[in-house]
Amino acid sequence: AGSACARLLAQAGAKVLLLEKARFPREKSCGGLLSGKTLASIDAPLPDRLVLSKVHGMRMVAEDGKLQAESGHLPGRAVLVDRSQFDWWMVERACQAGAVYRDACEVVRIANGREMATVYLIGGALVAKWVVGADGAAS
Questions:
Q1: Terminal Cα distance for the chain, rounded
Q2: pLDDT tens-digit profile of 98-120?
Q3: Which CATH architecture is the domain 1-55+74-105 placed in?
Q4: Which of 32, 78, 112, 113 could be disulfide-bonded to 55 (CB atoms 3.0-4.6 Å)?
């Protein structure tokens, strides 16, 4: 979401700095399923090299072997991707649109001011008029 937002803002003419906590390639605890709806929101075809498998249906089975859910046909096209490679592709697209990318930048906290926000990093700080936090499910 962060790279997609950075790309859209950069395309609209905003000055964008995209920060990543880790260095790429980095592991992400994610199954890598991209739904048809997600794929439709990306404004470019997904390169074949990123697609590990096409998904036409799925079953969710609990640890005890009991079937929890099943979908014989997923609406739209769904694919499995390696999240590390997919995320890097999204970063590259944001940079092509004009965003500046910095990795190994861990945000410690954000302080909102009257007109600007201060983003405190390990080893420094940045000031910005707008801050978009797209730091995952634990955010």
A1: 13
A2: 999 999 999 999 999 999 999 99
A3: 3-Layer(bba) Sandwich (3.50)
A4: 78
pLDDT of residue 119: 96
pLDDT at 12 over 80: yes
Which has the closest alpha carbon to 4: 30, 34, 29? Answer: 34
Domain ranges of the chain: 1-55+74-105
Q: 38: which DSSP letter?
A: H
User: Which residue has 């994610």 as its token pair?
Assistant: 30
Q: What is the DSSP string of 36-84?
A: HHHHHHSSSPPPGGGEEEEES-EEEE-TTS-EEEEESS-SS-EEEE-HH
Please tell me the number of Cα atoms within 13 Å of 40 on its side-chain side. Answer: 6
Determine the pLDDT at residue 138: 65
